[in-house]
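Q: Make up one entry.
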Amino acid sequence: MSDSPRALADLPYAQYLERRSALPECDDSADCALFDGVEATDLAVKGVRFTECAFDTLRIIASSFQGSQFSEVWVHGSQFVSGTLADTSWQNSEVVTSSFAGVEMHGVTLRRVTFHNCKFDSVNFRSARMRDVTFADCVLRDADFGGASLERVSATGSELTGIKMDHVTLKDVDLRGATRLSIASGTERLEGATITPLQLVELAPAFARALGVSVRE
């Protein structure tokens, strides 16, 4: 993935995209499709296979994409409110200037995925599997990574506030680029992560609580 977000015209499959006015039904597939300006509530798009597709300015509310597969997709300027992306798989994909609020993403698999300027509010990433994932200039508030497996994940320029890290497994996770790092629980599970000396100082109270250490004057 590129270090900077791509525009629609930059996609290698842009010239082959065919505009569609609605998302496919369950267990269907979509190849080289452009979904632009789609708005939907209580939609069921379970088990759909999206390959080389672009999603631009979507607004999706209380809808289910459970078990769907996203390969070589580009998402831009879109909103996902409540609903579920649980057990979905994403690879070689890019999500730009999009927001996820109260979305279930437990069991999601992310491989070589970059999020640029995205917001995640109270998103459930429990038991997620992430490898080669970048959160660039993103905001993650009250995100729950409980039981997740993260490998080669970075958070450059991102704010991580009130995140839960209970029972996570980390390998080569780089948090040094985070502009804010606040962990609500699971501080003792940060083995495999790299942080800065300043972040260590800021996290000291959380480490003390996790170790049962009382700090008093």
